[in-house]
Protein 1
Amino acid sequence: MARFVLQRLAFFGLVLLGVSLITFAIAHLAPGDPARMMAGPAASADAVAALRAELGLDLPLWQQYARYLGDLLRFDLGTSNVSGEPVLDEILARAPASIELMGSALLLSLLVGIPLGIGAAVKRGGWLDRLVSGLSVAGISVPAFWLGLVMVILFYRQLEWFPASGRFTGEPPPAVTGFLLIDALIALDFRALSAASAHLALPVLSLALLEAGPLARLVRNQMRAVLGSDYVRMARASGLSERTILWRHALRNALTPLVTLVAASIAMMLFGSVSLETVFGWPGAGHYVVQSIFALDFPVIMGFAVLTAIAYVLVNTAADITLGLIDPRVRPA
């Protein structure tokens, strides 16, 4: 098992090295001079040259990359060209909003996707099976921003059930964790809890619907494989009821890969939440990086790419290690 964990950690390091190379290359291939953008259009050529020297942009590329890699290892993602603040601080300040959105959407997608997948596997060929197939195709093919716009038109403009933008209306609860739902519960402020939930509703519903379909399809396929296995046929031959077979024997083994499914869902949400945060004006890290793209704030763009890659690889590495602990079959021989 130790060898298995070391292999996953080594792969984690290689991926991060590759990400650092890609982000460094993109930054240098992008149009424009970072020193000129930071100094402003009115700055003299001497001032721009001095700033280039201060930033190390006059060094050979390999030295620039070595400095960049060293900064990454110290968790220094640079300084925003727009705000002048450290990129890491800017992103972390907005991270709770993004995590609250993705966490709520993940919980909802699991609560919807797992029962749908189980029902579709048991009632093969029925309407629930066809519904899961349709939702799966829609979840893969429908763009997140398009679904978000549909939600705004339907539930905000037409029905006026939920707000269409922002994270909160009025005075927020005292900040303890940065997560409005948790902070409202800590303060026992149910008005704030209701307001925060209302603002969460549309972006969470949009993101969860995109993930629930593919998740239900994977659960359905896994459940079908288990229900067709030898030990389930033996259980039926022994006279056990279908309910006992399903809940006591089949479900436990069918949901073993749930760790991998959750990791895959989180990975997809990392990308889907960026466009949805923009559609709903959600003040998270995804919305911030979109604004930075339009402002050509390359340190923020590069920092967000690196942090997203770290989160993606960490989630998948943790899923692989966890699955190896609970299922010895996936460990290397």
Note: The longest helix spans residues 190-227.
Protein 2
Amino acid sequence: MDIDKNLQDIEKKIKIEFNNKNLLKQALTHTSYAHEYFKDKCYHNERLEFLGDAVLELIVSEYLYEAFPDLPEGELTRLRANIVCEVSLVKGAKGINLGDYIFLGKGELSMGGRERPSILADAFEALMGALYIDQGYITAKRIALNLLGDVMEELQKGIIYKDYKTMLQEHFQKTSYSTPQYKIIRESGPDHDKIFEAQVMVNDQVLGEGRGKSKKEAEQSAASRAWDRLRNNCLP
């Protein structure tokens, strides 16, 4: 593998020239490669991955906060979690064929490591960490939002605008002929800034809880959490 060409190719993909090439090289170095080829066994991308994870969380949080001023905290948190999850990061990585440029040990290569989701997602985070150090937050943000643009648009359309109460009701009416029931279990805060907490139940079983600044918002939040559990087969 031509290391210099690898670095140049990924720089062309993201349209940035690194000041510190070693930083980019480290971001693309998997632990298996470091253990096989380097005397310094710590010269791999795990620390940059740690930093990149935090950088991505901030970038996505800031974007969502500014883009959706009326979305409650719970929905922002859930949407962010979907954007920075492994599945989404793998899509971002595949958008620039990142797997082709990762330095992997022979064993990892033989097992198809270039396509392994965890390796791709980790390398994507490490690349963001390296960009943050080498180019600064603004550039890292621009590149991250560009690479995750399709994912974010897809999630916004598919998640933000869903009516979870209706979806939940339709599901249970089809599968068990039951209707979800909602109950406000707690109110807190002054009259001008109340927070409501709601539960959604089916056959006296609590499926989800949520919070909001209105009863309707709290019920939607509870329904969305129940829907997530249902989708992930987490309901008992």
Note: Residues 37 and 130 are 21 Å apart (CA to CA).
Protein 3
Amino acid sequence: MGRVQTVLGDIDVKDMGYTMPHEHILTCPQGHGSKVEEDHLLNSYSKAVAMLREYKADGGGTLVEATPKTWGRDAVGMKYASEATGVNVVACTGYICQEHGMPDDLGDWDIERVVDEMVKDITVGMDGTDIKAGWIKCGTAYLHITPGEEKVIRAACRAAKKTGVSVHAHTTIGTMGLEILKIVQDEDFDTSRFAVAHVDRNPDLWYHRKMLETGCSLIYDGPGKAKYYPDSMRVDLLKHLVDEGYASKLMMCNDMGRRSHHKVYGFGPGFNYIKDVFLPRLIDEGFDEQTVHDFMYANPQKFYEMRDPE
């Protein structure tokens, strides 16, 4: 069977159901970005459960959790929330961009140390538990890639080859995607197993097309966040890319990583904005219903399916 590795163990990819590929239910980024720490602090197990219950009640099946260790990854909390709700949660190993959390001495590490850490999280368990990660995260700064970030990208590709999981990258304001992909190609990693996130913060159709030409997937995770451009911009970009034949390489989610994004913390719009508002808008704007369905079902299932290790 095709499988994906969740915090509760392996499941058949067909059992993923409706899937959002880059979200957050528990974070604790103390020491990073002091101006936004409180808003980024998602530290309540009961609220994490409430988030997932709302998600499931609206048809959610799987949530890909994008919180790395240095941003407060909580393996025990993710398992608890998944068990309490029945929502599949796929955790990550790896690191976000250097600005938002890497070990201070990572630049001095041998790359194989980074690889081994990632492989252990996937094959043995995270943070001293037997709860395993199911994908690898990397990330880059705004308009440049630090040496530490490049090391993590290369390590992610090597660890993914050893374990069969997929990789996706945080980008800062949607920049450096092509440069990331050049490193991925230099590592001779299968770009169909690599995705670039936050691309709709840099709404450059030519740039998105050039990334897709490498064979990668793109994650549009800004719907509902008008401060990062109105949804009309995302609709227009998606129309062009679907018309050009890239529908199978596009995934959608909200990237709700702040208290101010979540109804359970007294704000909004919450995880269900995509399903309740954005997807119906796509259909109203003329998108084929099967294409919209695939954004949330077939595409993430194919992307996160584990492959045979090399």
Note: The radius of gyration is 18 Å.
